[in-house]
Amino acid sequence: MSFSMPPMPIPQRVLELEARFGTPGLRVGSAADAFVFSKTLESANAATGATSGSGVSAQSAGTINPGFVGSVIDADGTLADDVPYGDLFRAAGAAHGIQPSVLAAVAKTESAFDPNAVSHAGAQGLMQFMPGTAADMGVDPLDPASAIDGAARYLSQNLRRFGSLELALAAYNAGPGAVQQHGGIPPFAETQAYVPKVLAAAGLSSSTSPISTSALPSQGTSQ
Questions:
Q1: Which residues have CB under 8 Å from 39's CB, separation 6+?
Q2: pTM above 0.85, yes or no
Q3: What CATH number does the domain located at 10-205 have?
């Protein structure tokens, strides 16, 4: 059974999030933190059925995306030739050690391959970067080549940090601080659904369970 929550002021929403999920162990004052908070807010909204602050705008989803409805992979598991921006996914994947099909699956899940998508929380473009995070990483979120390369770099960083594609994808959705804090895939409804959805779109299955906090690398330097 689903229900909707009435809009509430941001400070009250922050307190509600902290009550539900705890206070994330994040660095303060960085562009990455804004990305993590927005993703956490969107995850909480998805879990409670709230519509404010989550999802791709109706205009983006309905009138701008290329309309690609096929699989991102061929029968052999490689990136399908007709996937939008296929050459960019292949180039970025080769540059940063990420399967092109995984990058395409992220784009399909995040924006339905819409380079002009804007979420209610302000995430932009094909790969749904928050403006602050994009600026911090030197990414133009509305330029597909820049956005795809940035997403590949971000996934590669988190793959090295957490040692698992599942956790790298969870970090892309909920933020690396949330993955570190919860010792695995965070218990957010959106993130719990996001990881297998991306893996399935890429023709992969979950091969490992979320690892314990003690097995996670120390936070050290942040991306």
A1: 173, 174, 175, 178
A2: no
A3: 1.10.530.10
